[in-house]
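ok trying again, last paste got cut off:
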Amino acid sequence: QVQIGQSGGGLVQPGGTLRLSCVVNGSFVGFPPMGWYRQAPGQQREEVGIISGGNHPVYTDSVKGRFAITRDTSKRTVYLQMNRLKPEDTAIYYCKHLPTGTWGQGTQVTVSS
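nice, full thing came through this time. structure:
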């Protein structure tokens, strides 16, 4: 069984930065593949990016060059660094433990002046 706790998020002006954190607790070896997703109001949840066991993240086109997924194995934490934020990045952001499909609780990111 896996438990996920998210933190970070908030209100930021366009062009600003935020970092989201996702702590993964449970019984596993190494670091599991994790995904970041987001859901804007009235929209379906979409994939933002995934970091696999090989530590080579892949991103959706709309965030390439602006967002970065990293992880700290010793802290069992995966991060989503978001730079040059745009109003269209406004959404609830979720992390997901891919092997079990377990979701974090979500955190609101609002980009507005």
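cool. The first strand starts at residue 2 and ends at 7. The radius of gyration is 13 Å.
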